[in-house]
């Protein structure tokens, strides 16, 4: 029997009840869907929510050798541009976008997480290391594949994400300094990035250099968003402004510890936080206290 308009009023009561429940269920499901920008599709966003594994085949794994300020990188892995990663244009020509696979995978995971949580995001990658490591002009470190400079997420005054040719400086209010006074420090996206970096279980972050005023903004944003206490404590420990050298008001400088497989050839120095991957020299972990007032930018 057909349930056309002429017979709709004569549907059995059980059928009418079933149709009503179905319609309510569809409506409730629609209300539960995440809100996406008009030009975003569900499939790409779903892919962003998945963890990525870039582990190379046996015998092709990268290795960090010696210290970051006098080291080398064997079989460096390239960070590639994608829908959620971009190179900062100022550094594009030199091509120093190589790191250990642990660092590259960390950046992939972090960029994807921010883009998944806050659609429209692209992580701005500055310099990592040369393909085989060694000295890089303008840096005291970045020699062994465990350092990366990351540009801040920033917006226009109306909240739209914005990307610049080079790193942009910000003051304590999160406002861009000349000639970028129209820019705003994106508290939400930058905190989401930091939270993923410090909580990653594979690549263990030793520290993130950033200006002290911006550190305070990030910690306030994390507390406002209800971040777990452990994540806030890690962020408080690793976010720091060097006592000397670059104030890091225009980018993050991130360094990860040596991978367990590289220890012996790779060299770390203190601090050895409780999440250090292995047993630190002397067996003593660093306490999470105030952030390194006397530490210089290596």
How would you summarize what this structure contains?
By secondary structure, the protein is of the alpha+beta class. The chain is built from seven helices and 13 strands. The longest helix has 20 residues, at 13-32.
Fill in the keyword field for this structure.
298 residues, alpha+beta, Muramoyl-pentapeptide Carboxypeptidase, domain 2, three-stranded antiparallel sheet, 15% strand, globular, disordered N terminus
Question: What is the topology?
Answer:
Blueprint: H1 13-32, H2 42-48, E1 63-67, E2 70-74, E3 77-78, E4 85-87, H3 89-92, E5 98-99, H4 101-117, E6 123-125, E7 147-151, E8 154-155, E9 161-162, E10 184-185, H5 187-199, E11 205-209, H6 212-224, H7 229-238, E12 239-240, E13 251-256
Parallel strand pairs: 4-6, 11-12
Antiparallel strand pairs: 1-2, 3-5, 6-7, 7-13, 8-9, 8-10, 11-13
Helix pairs in contact: 4-5, 5-6, 5-7
Protein architecture, described:
The chain is α+β, with helices and mostly antiparallel strands and 298 residues long. The chain has a single domain (66-283), classed as Muramoyl-pentapeptide Carboxypeptidase, domain 2 (2-Layer Sandwich). Helices cover 28% and strands 15% of the residues. It contains seven helices and 13 strands. The strands form four sheets. The protein has a six-stranded mixed β-sheet with strand order 4-6-7-13-11-12. A three-stranded antiparallel β-sheet has the order 9-8-10. Helix 4 (101-117) packs across helix 5, helix 5 packs across helix 6 (212-224) and helix 5 (187-199) crosses helix 7. The chain is globular, with a radius of gyration of 24 Å.
């Amino acid at each position: 029997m057909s349930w056309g308009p002429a017979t709709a009023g004569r549907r059995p009561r059980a059928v009418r009840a079933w149709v009503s429940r179905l319609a309510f269920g569809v409506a409730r499901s629609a209300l539960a869907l995440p809100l996406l920008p008009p030009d975003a599709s569900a499939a790409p966003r779903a892919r962003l929510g998945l963890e990525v594994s870039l582990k190379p085949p046996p015998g092709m794994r990268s290795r960090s050798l010696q210290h970051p300020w006098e080291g080398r990188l064997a079989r460096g892995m390239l960070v590639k541009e994608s829908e959620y990663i971009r190179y900062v244009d100022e550094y594009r020509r030199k091509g120093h976008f190589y790191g250990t696979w642990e660092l590259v995978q960390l950046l992939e995971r972090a960029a994807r997480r921010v883009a998944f949580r806050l659609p429209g995001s692209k992580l701005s990658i500055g310099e990592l290391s040369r393909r085989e490591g060694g000295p890089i002009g303008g840096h005291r470190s970045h020699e062994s594949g465990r350092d990366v400079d990351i540009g801040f997420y920033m917006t226009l005054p109306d909240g739209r994400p914005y990307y610049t040719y080079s790193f942009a400086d910000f003051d304590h209010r999160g406002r861009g300094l000349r000639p970028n006074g129209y820019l705003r420090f994106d508290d939400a996206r930058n905190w989401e990035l930091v939270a993923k970096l410090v909580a990653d279980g594979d690549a263990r972050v030793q520290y993130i250099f950033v200006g002290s005023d911006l550190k305070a903004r990030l910690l306030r944003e994390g507390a406002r968003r209800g971040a777990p206490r452990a994540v806030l404590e890690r962020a408080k420990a690793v976010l720091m402004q060097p006592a000397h050298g670059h104030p890091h008001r225009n980018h993050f400088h991130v360094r990860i510890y040596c991978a367990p497989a590289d220890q012996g050839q790779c060299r770390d120095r203190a601090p050895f936080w409780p999440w250090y991957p292995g047993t630190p020299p002397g067996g003593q972990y660093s306490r999470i206290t105030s952030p390194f007032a006397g530490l210089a930018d290596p």
